[in-house]
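Dear support,

I submitted the protein below through the web form. The confirmation email said the job was done, but the results page showed an empty box. After a refresh the structure appeared. I'm attaching both so you can tell me whether what I see now is the final result or a partial one.
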Amino acid sequence: MTDEPEMTPERQARLVKVLLVISPFGAAFSYGLAAIQRAEPGTCALLAGITFVGCIGAALLVHLRGSKAGSDAGWIALILRLLARR
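What the results page shows now:
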């Protein structure tokens, strides 16, 4: 048994809104962390872009799939790991 409440449309909309608001701040934060570690500006921008796209992608996945987004995210991570092994 899980103690998590069901994903209602209100909770889903709130989560999507939070992910959309966090995405630019997360990108700036990851850029700043990479810059502090003296990474090249191109690498900093790449990390910031990956963070931004990841937040937007998560928001899209939650918006489209709702409560099934967690298992979808697991499958996406598995597929990306398999592609990275090549």
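Response: this is the final, complete result; the empty box was a page-load delay. The two ends are 38 Å apart (CA to CA).
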